[in-house]
């Protein structure tokens, strides 16, 4: 199988649309030099964040704990419990504490280990009954939380170890039935003697503190200990400075702009539920629409040329490729049936499935194209290495090709996530504008992919011009739809 494209389709001047309003609006920023403008103003994905080590996170958390402890005149361990339960909001904790609005906050006013009056009479003989292990022990072997429920030290230790082995740390509560008072950190550590249990408890606690903090996110990279900190809680792209993992700061999942966190979760759930149907339509092979010979896709570009009859067609819609270059890139848009509301229930179900398959196939195709283009990059790297060894330039001379490949991956990744966005988007002029920009981005990505796959025969100036056009398409779409 081969893929090809006429050179007249690569220029921006050939990109025309019957809707002049969209075209004029979309191209209003084409003369802007992105590199000369502060990214804070033009990059819709930009936001300020810091990558912190565990020691730095501990220091940040302890500063907050110290502030609350001083303000309310309570032990730091209790301050940490209250902050963790209220997403580290000092003002919220202070208000609840002063209003005595919850049982936990009221109980926190009682000093831990204060002997409950109901048990004073049992101390006449200096022995206390433990209701857990059913033994009489000297009262010095007993401790209690602020709720005044007393148990022996051995039972407290056993209780904490069992909870910790189940992955519970900050959520460990009193052993008494229906008691909701939580055990502070210093109280737990006082009863844990084994070093491995203390270490496990502190690790679990640290993870709980970070997860409950609205301004902190663990890097989802494998075996990475970096924590990202930002006060801008938005679905923006964060990149770990240690393992280079890219993720959404707001939800901690794979970056998914322009689709928001709620929508992408719905989409992924739907894809998982309809996996059998999705697998059926996501095959790697299709028949040539002209000679019907079976063709396998081996590159990221969707412009296909049949190796048998040389017919140029689109991999996605199987339409003639000539209609994809100089006119509106209709392939990405789904045409709703205007009369579907009046059809039968079965007809509506078929239409719903047809719509889903339209968006899913394109979503899945771009995911596969990303993987295929990684293979293309490796082949390109090998060929460039041979050229360098043969004296045909240096690695620096060929670096622009790797820059182009990285940009292509970024643009295609964004394009992939436009399909869940479009699937759940309500119809109207706003969606028409989005679909227009989506189509323009897709057309320029295919042009860029084509030229990279034939990099050694592509003029460098032409390739860099195509890179600039594709990035402007991507940036404009995100600027208009990322943070609605």
UniProtKB/TrEMBL annotation:
Molecular functions per Gene Ontology: ubiquitin protein ligase activity; zinc ion binding
PROSITE patterns: TRIAD, ZF_RING_1, ZF_RING_2
GO CC field: nucleus
GO biological process, one term: protein ubiquitination
Taxonomy, superkingdom: Eukaryota
Region of interest (Disordered), residue spans: 1-22
Comp. bias intervals (Polar residues): 1-11
Coiled-coil regions listed: 438-480
EC number(s) recorded for this UniProt protein: 2.3.2.31
Top-level EC class as recorded in UniProt: transferase
Any Pfam family: IBR
Record field: catalytic activity: [E2 ubiquitin-conjugating enzyme]-S-ubiquitinyl-L-cysteine + [acceptor protein]-L-lysine = [E2 ubiquitin-conjugating enzyme]-L-cysteine + [acceptor protein]-N(6)-ubiquitinyl-L-lysine
Annotated compartments: Nucleus
Limits of the RING-type domain: 126-335, 291-335
Record bears the keyword NAD: no
Ranges of Acidic residues composition bias in the record: 13-22
Keywords: Coiled coil, Metal-binding, Nucleus, Repeat, Transferase, Ubl conjugation pathway, Zinc, Zinc-finger
Keyword Ligase: no
Main location as per UniProt: nucleus
Family affiliation: Belongs to the RBR family. Ariadne subfamily.
Family annotation (PANTHER family): RBR FAMILY RING FINGER AND IBR DOMAIN-CONTAINING
Protein name in the entry: RBR-type E3 ubiquitin transferase
Native source organism of the sequence: Phyllotreta striolata
């Amino acid at each position: 199988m081969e893929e090809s494209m006429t050179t007249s389709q690569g220029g921006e001047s050939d990109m025309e649309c019957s809707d002049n309003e969209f075209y004029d609006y979309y191209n209003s920023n084409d003369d802007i030099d992105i590199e000369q403008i502060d990214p804070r103003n033009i990059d819709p994905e930009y936001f300020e964040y810091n990558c912190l080590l565990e020691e730095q996170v501990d220091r940040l958390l302890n500063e907050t704990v110290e502030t609350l402890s001083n303000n309310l005149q309570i032990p730091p361990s209790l301050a940490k419990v209250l902050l963790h339960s209220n997403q580290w909001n000092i003002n919220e904790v202070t208000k609840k504490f002063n209003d005595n609005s919850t049982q936990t906050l009221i109980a926190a006013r009682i000093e831990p280990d204060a002997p409950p009056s109901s048990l004073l009479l049992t101390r006449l003989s200096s022995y206390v009954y433990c209701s857990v292990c059913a033994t009489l022990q000297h009262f010095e072997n007993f401790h209690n939380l602020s709720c005044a429920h007393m148990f022996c030290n051995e039972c407290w230790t056993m209780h904490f170890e069992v909870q910790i082995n189940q992955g519970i740390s900050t959520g460990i509560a009193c052993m008494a039935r229906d008691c909701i008072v939580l055990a502070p950190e210093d109280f737990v550590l006082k009863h844990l003697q084994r070093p491995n249990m203390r270490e496990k408890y502190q690790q679990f606690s640290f993870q709980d503190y970070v997860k409950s903090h609205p301004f902190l996110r663990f890097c989802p990279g494998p075996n990475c200990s970096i924590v990202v900190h930002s006060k801008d809680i938005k679905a923006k792209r964060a990149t770990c400075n240690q393992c280079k993992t890219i993720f959404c700061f707001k939800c901690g999942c794979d970056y998914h702009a322009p689709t928001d966190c709620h929508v992408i979760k719905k989409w992924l759930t739907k894809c998982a539920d309809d996996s059998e149907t999705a697998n059926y339509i996501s095959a790697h092979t299709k028949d040539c629409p002209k000679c019907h010979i079976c063709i396998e896709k081996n590159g990221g570009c969707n412009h296909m040329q049949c190796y048998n009859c040389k017919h140029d067609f689109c991999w996605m819609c199987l339409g003639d490729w000539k209609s994809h270059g100089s006119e509106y890139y209709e392939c990405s848009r789904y045409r709703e049936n205007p009369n579907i509301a009046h059809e039968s229930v079965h007809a509506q179900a078929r239409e719903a499935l047809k719509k889903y398959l339209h968006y899913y196939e394109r979503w899945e195709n771009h995911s596969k194209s990303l993987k295929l283009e990684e293979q293309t990059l490796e082949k390109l790297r090998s060929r460039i290495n041979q050229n360098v060894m043969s004296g045909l330039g240096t690695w620096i001379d060929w670096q622009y090709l790797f820059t182009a490949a990285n940009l292509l991956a970024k643009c295609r990744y964004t394009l992939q996530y436009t399909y869940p966005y479009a699937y759940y988007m309500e119809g109207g002029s706003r969606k028409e504008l989005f679909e227009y920009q989506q189509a323009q981005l897709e057309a320029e990505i295919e042009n860029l992919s084509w030229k990279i796959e034939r990099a050694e025969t592509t003029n460098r100036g032409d390739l860099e011009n195509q890179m600039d056009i594709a990035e402007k398409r991507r940036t404009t779409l995100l600027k208009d739809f990322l943070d609605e």
